[in-house]
Amino acid sequence: MIFNLPMYKKFISMHSVVDNTQGNIQAIAFVTTFLESIGFDIRMVAEGDTEQPTIIANYPGRLSDNKIVLYGHYDVAPVNLQACWGSEDPFALEKINGRLYGRGIADNKGPLLARMLALQALVLSGNPIPTIMWLIQGEEEITQGDRVAQYVFENEIPAFGAKVYIEETGFNDLDTDTQISFLWSPNLTASQLVSWHELLQMSLDGPRIEYRHLNKLNGIEACPLLSNLPKDAVYMGFGPNDRLHFIHQDNESLDEGKLSKHQHQFETFLMNYALYNHAS
Ligand SMILES: [Zn+2]
Fold first, then answer.
1. Dihedral, CA atoms, 267, 270, 271, 277, nearest 10 degrees?
2. Distance from the CA of 126 to the center of ligand 1, in angstroms?
3. Ligand 1 centroid vs 74 CA: distance in angstroms?
4. d(CA 250, CA 103)
5. Distance CA 95, CA 101 (A)
6. Which of 183, 199, 163, 179 is nearest to 262 (CA)?
7. How many angstroms does the Cα of residue 168 sit away from the middle of ligand 1?
8. 131: CA distance to ligand 1 center in Å?
9. Is residue 240 packed enough to be buried (19+ CB in 10 Å), middle (13-18) or exposed (0-12)?
10. Nearest to 58 by CA among 180, 175, 162, 178
């Protein structure tokens, strides 16, 4: 598998920040055109005068009866006026000592694009694919007022009826060089979720499974995924981030090797999930 650096550069170069009409139009077109080209059906929902609609992308599935919801967002945090980046332009992705620096690479454009490329590879492979609903919102970095994603997720999630929900990214422990996987549910206990360990073990790299969810800067209520999970939902989070990612700050970055690995793991995970027959 070749790491597609030019595509990451292109996606990062689009200024999909609040009030940037052109940047949002470009990022939305980038995501929707790509997903349509590999067989996704696209809908978009906006409310009021927002330029950052929620994208609802559905894939019909192949050789599988399992359903899954994926979460992500195409908007990025604004850059401070007195920004102190190592690079000239925070929107020009730059590789320094194995890490990629650019606004949005860690939150959430890097993981999002890695997953888009994983899906493309999976579609081309002919392997089984679950039925997918991918909810990609555009107002994740907006903390005030109503966001259309809340309403969209509230309606779409129960109607789709998936068991498993995948967070926008996940973490790696740099000190122990261990991949972490979150496994959580609003109502199911850690012991009730044990039947899902095998799926994570066979898809990831010897992960440390933690019974919790990704930390949310503005709390669970502000996250349209976490706040709209069904009571018996199985929530999982894994991805390329680590404590050096500096999301929302200057010098946001990701390890290129971990990003590339995530693409491969995501493809494997979806194929394994398509065939997974969990015990309980
Ligand atoms: Zn995010």
1. 160
2. 31
3. 9
4. 8
5. 6
6. 179
7. 7
8. 24
9. buried
10. 162
Strands 54-59, 131-137: pairing kind: antiparallel
Q: How far is the CA of 88 from the centre of ligand 1 (A)?
A: 24
Cβ 167 vs Cβ 225: under 8 Å? yes
Tell me the pTM. Answer: 0.97
Domain ranges across the chain: 5-275
pLDDT digits (tens, 9 = 90+) for 31-66: 999 999 999 999 999 988 789 999 999 999 999 999
Owner of token pair 């929902």: 45
From residue 135, alpha-carbon distances to 6, 53, 71, 233 in Å are 25, 11, 5, 16
Contact assessment for residue 14 and residue 23, using Cβ atoms and an 8 Å cutoff? yes
pLDDT tens digits, 190-226: 999 999 999 999 999 999 999 999 988 778 888 999 9
Q: How confident is the model at residue 127 (pLDDT cuts 50, 70, 90)?
A: very high
108 Cα: distance to centroid of ligand 1 (angstroms)? 5
CB atoms within 10 A of CB 154: 12
How many Cβ atoms are within 10 Å of 14's Cβ, its own excluded?
23
Query: What fold is seen in the domain 5-275?
Result: Aminopeptidase (3.40.630)
**Could you give the C-alpha distances from 124 to 5, 79, 117, 119, 128, in angstroms and in order?**
20, 37, 11, 9, 11
Residue from 216, 218, 104, 202 nearest 167 by CA: 216
Structure token digits, residue 280: 């309980």
Residue 151, burial from CB neighbour count under 10 angstroms (0-12, 13-18, 19+): middle
Give DSSP secondary structure letters for 166-201.
E-S--BEETTTTEEEEEEE-SSS-TGGGGGGHHHHH
Tell me the two tokens of residue 251. Answer: 């010098």
